[in-house]
């Protein structure tokens, strides 16, 4: 018994009297079979058994499996053989008219048969049995078509028929269907291709739609991202100031785009200091950009309690106490009731010839005996104290500590009834 086989071989265009490609004969009485596996017999010619001739009948036999026969003349096999399955017997057709039977084209590799139907791909395409939208000679059914729309993915991508936002040469719909890409908002676009300003893995519009992120100004950007890139949020409540104002949760009386609660308000009345000062609703007598009430609350003196810092009120004697306070409390004299402290009038030139701090206009300086009239009695007193003064200082009318002609002149110039 022999032990041999023929595997993966091609027999093409051979000519012989018996068995154009293979002749078998003169087997022994024990019998044997010759395995023929995965071979191609094409366009072979003989008087008997174009491909194989077995003259021994059943004594010895070719055992044929997964083998293709086409275009052999006058027949493929003459004599007994074992059909072990998956064999193809072609009619010898030559669909592409290249002088080689179709089976040989496929077996020799000169034609492809991607769908395994025994017909060269170019014939499937030319006959209309298979489409080839991209004209690459490969039936569309044999190319990758992950979305099963009958159009090869490569063609669909190249011509913009489908989207590939992440440029991985796979349609977005297939990335999503396979689980390679998420599509939380179910818009057919992988989440990784959509704006995600807060880098939480979810598209911004999904965060907004589901309420995970607020978008108070309706600009399709989460508020947290607006704030992160510079939108003011002075009260740190997670909402842009403009939304607080527009929504009425914050007032903005001066319309400067800043919630009033974020601006200086030293008197805590809910109105920015700058607004009160600009509208005159709060005085700022010293021009330090603070309401006077705040200056006072912080320690500025207001002796008369009138809400105006003492430093802003008239203080003619510069003792740090407003004149009106001194006058109302009797700590300063205003003998002529003109609301000006006498000492200030005197300092500014009002007469006080005796230097007693009282305006001459408020007293009768020359009435030495204080009887309401300047006359001879007063003259007698002045003369009696003539010279340096030691006693009775009223005789020294000008207060220079000497009773002399100056004092006499004052007396004579004021002669008569005191007014």
Shape designation: rod-shaped
* CA-based gyration radius: 62 Å
Uncertain ranges: none
**Cα distance, first to last residue?**
171 Å
Helix amount: 10-25%
Output the helix-strand order: EEEEEEEEEEEEEHHHHHHHHHHHEHEEHE
Secondary structural class: alpha/beta
Strand elements, count: 17
State the helix count: 13
Q: In what range is the share of β-strand residues?
A: 5-15%
Spatial strand arrangement across the major sheet: 1-5-9-12
Average pLDDT reading: 88
Description:
The structure is a single chain. By secondary structure, the protein is of the alpha/beta class. Among the domains are: 6-89, no CATH class; 373-417, no CATH class. 21% of the residues lie in helices and 12% in strands. The chain has helices at residues 102-108, 121-127, 153-158, 172-178, 204-209, 223-228, 241-246, 273-279, 292-297, 323-328, 342-347, 376-384, 405-413, and strands at 6-7, 10-12, 15-18, 22-24, 32-37, 40-42, 45-48, 52-54, 60-65, 68-70, 77-78, 82-83, 88-89, 373-374, 387-388, 402-403, 416-417. A four-stranded parallel β-sheet has the order 1-5-9-12, with no helix packed on it. A four-stranded parallel β-sheet has the order 2-6-10-13, with helices on one face.
Summarize the structure.
With 419 residues, the protein is α/β, with parallel strands linked by helices.
Topology at a glance:
Elements (H helix, E strand, L loop, with lengths): L5 E2 L2 E3 L2 E4 L3 E3 L7 E6 L2 E3 L2 E4 L3 E3 L5 E6 L2 E3 L6 E2 L3 E2 L4 E2 L12 H7 L12 H7 L25 H6 L13 H7 L25 H6 L13 H6 L12 H6 L26 H7 L12 H6 L25 H6 L13 H6 L25 E2 L1 H9 L2 E2 L13 E2 L1 H9 L2 E2 L2
Parallel strand pairs: 1-5, 2-6, 3-7, 4-8, 5-9, 6-10, 8-11, 9-12, 10-13
Antiparallel strand pairs: 14-17, 15-16
